[in-house]
Design brief:
By secondary structure, the chain is mainly alpha-helical. Helices cover about 85% and strands about 0% of the residues. It contains ten helices and no strands. Helix 2 runs antiparallel to helix 3 and helix 3 packs parallel to helix 5. The two termini are about 35 Å apart.
Length: about 230
């Protein structure tokens, strides 16, 4: 039963780290993750190790440390292969591609993207398609390939319309903004920046509502207990 305890403890550390990352407390998030990694190593929790490396990679990527981020994502990828997790491989490939593009290695980045697309046949199409096409569209936006970027971003946008996923829409609009900024079409870049902001405001106000409702229910709980 101690296994269950450590599995739960490590899961909680990963969740805490992800919340800290969202609120830009990266150093603290990395502290939790290294503690989680130590426990996962000691108790051979393979599945959780894969998630820890992915979370660490995301933080280093955000901090602009692309070399270190790539190492973490590659670790996560190898663990995903080891435990035959196609979903883990899919996300790792996209993350590795982002790092390689940021390091100027566009050729290898594209190879990773193509590998992630090849996995679509074995994964639940809809949601993974949106992510794969978004990632490709973003890649082509950064390398200033207008035709390919528009093709994949349009594809992912029409898919995300049916899924009603606001945070995906926000990311797609951001990629459009990057594309048009990179090719010097500032009018269109501004249009998409406004769309990005609209969705972003909606997400932020929903997150605030959520926080308020959590506080309210905690308050109600306390009142009931004191009664």
């Amino acid at each position: 039963d101690s296994d269950k305890y450590f599995y739960a403890r490590v899961s909680i550390l990963i969740s805490l780290a992800n919340v800290l990352k969202k609120t830009n407390q990266n150093e603290k998030a990395l502290d939790y993750l290294s503690e989680a990694l130590k426990l996962a190593d000691e108790h051979n929790l393979l599945k959780l190790k894969k998630n820890i490396y992915a979370s660490m990679g995301a933080i280093f990527f955000e901090m602009g440390d692309y070399e270190v981020a790539l190492d973490q994502f590659e670790e996560s990828y190898h663990l995903a292969i080891k435990e035959n997790s196609l979903e883990g491989q899919f996300y790792s490939l996209i993350n590795m591609a982002d790092c390689k593009r940021s390091l100027g290695n566009e050729k290898d980045a594209l190879i990773n993207h193509q590998s992630s697309v090849r996995l679509l046949d074995s994964l639940e199409k809809g949601p993974y398609e949106i992510i794969a096409y978004m990632a490709l569209g973003d890649f082509f936006a950064h390398v200033k390939n207008k035709k390919e970027a528009e093709f994949y971003l349009n594809k992912s946008l029409s898919l995300s319309d049916s899924s009603k996923n606001d945070s995906q829409k926000r990311d797609i609009y951001k990629s459009y903004k990057v594309l048009y900024e990179n090719i010097g079409d500032y009018q269109k870049s501004l249009e998409y920046f406004k769309k990005f902001q609209e969705v972003n405001d909606k997400i932020t106000s929903n997150e605030m509502k959520l926080k308020v409702s959590i506080l309210n229910s905690e308050f109600e709980l306390e009142m009931k207990e004191s009664e």
